[in-house]
Design brief:
This protein is mainly β and 365 residues long. It has 2 helices and 30 strands. It has an 18-stranded parallel beta sheet that branches. A 12-stranded parallel beta sheet has the order 1-2-5-8-11-14-17-20-22-24-27-29, with helices on one face. It is elongated, with a radius of gyration of 21 Å. The termini are far apart.
């Protein structure tokens, strides 16, 4: 479908038609217009939008979604996605800043919307951005700068069919209950989630959630699975004080991940006091810590790391260190690696490497 284009500027004086960059809407005018129109793309110019009230981005429909897209100097000039969330944080220098820090407001989204290229922030002991069903949040930075709140949430995606792609989700709270992403029946991919290294949860999964090719840095629990089905594939984890994955309900699949922590009391997987259905296949992990309450569920193809596999504490690309990143590369673990040379079975018909689905290159014949 072709969007009807509208333009928004922090410098707008009000009363514009929104039909061009020279006659833009204000932020408030965009909110009002989107509340009763579908099939529009709102091009939001770089600048700081200092807001205080709770705003709702108006719903679209499945056939005619609404898009809210930041740009620097010309529309869609910030749309290119980064190659690897492990390497570095998003460059948001040309994103519009949607700042609720002065008034504690919240940005919410209706259904069937696309949100991209925005830097949304707040210092509220609550949620910064909450969207509804069938939404896509792409190439955004969403951060909650509140330093201690236990109700802190950076981003919350709705109860069905929502996607977070190539985003940075950041929390500053040291409370264990703070959450970078609350996801219920949604997917998060190629994103970077960061905490303080003391407390907080990276992804809190309510059910039917997939987490793929993400970097998770500095949490109490990097992923917490509370319901139904959770699948974690191709992610990189660094320094968590509790567990890489805390699994309290439902089925967990944990495949093709690289996990490193210097915290001796940490767990790769903690099954939450009772045996839950789960499987761990083809993961690399540090020797610090242990698993808890696993029962007899399968662990296959595990690589034990004897050195830090990552380039630095903030750059989670794999290094070339023996026993670290080199050990991961030897078996084609880590985002963006070619699994073409990986075996499908050992010499005796077992004990070989199971190549994760979706890795480039396939398996050697």
């Amino acid at each position: 479908m072709a969007f009807t284009e509208k333009f928004v500027s922090a410098a707008a004086g009000g009363g514009g038609t929104g039909n061009s960059a020279g006659d833009p809407y204000t932020w408030a005018e965009m909110i009002t217009h989107s509340g009763s129109n579908t099939g529009h793309r709102y091009n939001i110019l770089k600048g700081t939008y200092s807001l205080s009230s709770t705003d709702t981005l108006g719903s679209g429909t499945a056939a005619a979604p609404n898009e809210f897209s930041g740009y620097g100097t010309s529309e869609q000039d910030q749309d290119t996605l980064r190659d690897d969330p492990c390497a570095a944080a998003l460059d948001v220098s040309n994103f519009p800043v949607i700042d609720y820090s002065g008034g504690g407001g919240t940005l919410t989204g209706g259904g069937n919307i696309i949100v991209r290229n925005l830097h949304v922030k707040n210092d509220n002991n609550g949620t910064v951005f909450a969207c509804g069903t069938n939404n896509a949040v792409m190439h955004c930075k969403i951060e909650n700068t509140h330093a201690s709140g236990s109700s802190v949430v950076a981003c919350q995606i709705g109860t069905s069919g929502s996607l977070v792609l190539d985003c940075d989700l950041v929390i500053a709270s040291t409370a264990n209950g703070a959450v970078a992403l609350n996801a219920d029946r949604g997917s998060v991919g190629s994103s970077r989630l960061s905490g303080t290294g003391i407390g907080g949860i990276g992804v809190q999964c309510g059910g039917w959630t997939t987490v793929t090719r993400c970097a998770l840095i500095g949490f109490f629990r990097a992923i917490e699975c509370n319901s139904t089905y959770t699948f974690v594939y191709g992610c990189s984890f660094r320094n968590f004080t509790g567990s890489a994955v805390y699994h309290s309900a439902g089925l967990l699949g944990f495949v093709g991940n690289v996990v490193y922590s210097t915290q001796t009391g940490s767990n790769l997987v903690n099954i939450g006091g009772a045996v839950r259905a789960h499987f761990q296949i083809n993961n690399a992990r540090s020797t610090a810590g242990s698993d808890a309450n696993e029962g007899d569920w399968p662990v296959q193809g595990e690589v034990t790391l004897t050195a830090d596999p990552f380039t630095s504490s903030s750059d989670l690309t794999l290094n070339a260190t023996a026993g670290g990143g080199a050990a991961c590369k030897d078996v084609a673990l880590g985002p963006n690696l070619d699994a073409g040379a990986a075996q499908s079975a050992g010499a005796g018909g077992g004990g070989g490497l199971l190549v994760p689905l979706g890795m480039a290159g396939g398996m050697a014949g």
